[in-house]
Specification:
By secondary structure, this protein is an alpha+beta fold. It folds into two domains: 4-41, no CATH class; 45-180, Jelly Rolls. 19% of the residues lie in helices and 44% in strands. The strands form two sheets. Strands 3, 5, 6, 8, 9, 10 and 12 form a seven-stranded antiparallel β-sheet that branches. Strands 1, 2, 4, 7, 11 and 13 form a six-stranded antiparallel β-sheet that branches. The longest helix has 19 residues, at 23-41.
Length: 181
């Protein structure tokens, strides 16, 4: 058991067990402890997506990252993550996570579009990937992934940039999975 909060609760329950008058208080605490231990067997995860957006992220200059504009939906989640548009926040204990995402986004013809994960508005450099849009305007898929540590209240988002020009990037779809390791 790594979680000091669980150890503290276990000690508190043990103290209650020594005193028969407090057994009524020990039962709810024991149930809470067992739920926490059970949840540890299943690592936290969340999946969010937007498959039909067409939203545009605009830039004032080329080669600047901005948060991808999209109204995402959460499909599945388990324990300790919350989701709002293109943002996952860790609301519990510190954890190592794997971030995985597929972004299909286009700029104008033959432009290099980048995608990356940002944690607390700072790029996670190893996650940055790019693709060149086709001359026919087809949106390439950009796969991004990395491993990072998330403390309570840390958040991750997908950001994009157009390194060729200041033309906007148009989202076709996005799918992101965050998994505790």
């Amino acid at each position: 058991m790594k979680d000091p909060e669980i150890l503290d609760e276990y000690r508190e329950i043990a103290n209650f067990q020594k005193n028969a008058l407090n057994r009524q208080k020990a039962v709810p605490l024991l149930a809470k402890l067992l739920r926490k231990l059970f949840n540890r067997a299943y690592l936290a995860f969340i999946n969010y997506f937007d498959f039909s957006s067409g939203s545009q992220t605009t830039f004032t200059q080329s080669n600047e990252f901005k948060k991808l504009v999209t109204a995402t939906s959460s499909a599945y989640d388990w324990e300790s993550f919350t989701h709002t548009n293109n943002r996952v926040t860790n609301y519990e204990y510190t954890k190592n996570v794997k971030l995985e995402g597929i972004v299909s986004a286009a700029g104008s013809n033959n432009e290099e579009v980048h995608a990356a994960f940002f944690k607390n508005d700072e790029i996670i450099p190893c996650s940055e990937q790019s693709a060149v849009t086709s001359s026919g305007g087809k949106a390439p898929n950009i796969a991004i992934q990395c491993i990072t540590t998330m403390n309570p209240n840390d958040y991750v988002e997908v950001w994009v940039k157009n390194s060729t020009s200041a033309h906007p990037v148009t989202l076709h779809n996005i799918n992101v999975i965050v998994t505790e390791l």
